[in-house]
Structure to design on (131 residues):
């Protein structure tokens, strides 16, 4: 599996599109619309299912996803920088000149850090001074 089916709107009225898994930065469950939001560097897509299903399926297909908090899966391979002070993962600058980010829980930060160390992924850790 190297791609998944997604839509560009929550109800799927625009149809289905194929999205390369390598482009996914993180996926989050949005309870108000009961959908999985799929975040890439420049776009937002929608799909269905549970985070547990997607974590199992993506990990089973060889992709490096970790539960970042109870509502978010993060694609560790796409992280370029982590803020250790505020537990934020950054994915590099997008076409609009902004840097997409994903907040991590304390447990999620530990899981991502453990994964990074185990796979020797080149990610920059930054720490802001505490005032």
């Amino acid at each position: 599996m190297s791609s998944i089916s997604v839509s560009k709107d929550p109800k799927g009225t625009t149809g289905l599109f194929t999205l390369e898994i390598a482009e996914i930065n993180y996926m989050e469950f949005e309870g108000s619309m009961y959908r999985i939001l799929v975040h890439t560097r420049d776009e937002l897509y929608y799909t269905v299912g549970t985070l547990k299903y997607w974590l199992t399926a993506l990990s089973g297909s060889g992709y490096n996803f970790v539960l970042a908090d109870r509502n978010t899966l993060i694609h560790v391979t796409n992280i370029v920088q982590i803020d250790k002070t505020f537990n934020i993962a950054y994915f590099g600058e997008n076409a609009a000149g902004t840097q997409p980010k994903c907040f991590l829980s304390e447990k999620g930060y530990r899981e991502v850090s453990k994964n990074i160390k185990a796979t020797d992924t080149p990610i920059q850790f930054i720490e802001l001074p505490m005032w």
The first strand starts at residue 3 and ends at 6. The chain has one domain: 3-126. Residues 106-119 form the longest helix (14 residues). Helices lie at 51-60, 106-119.
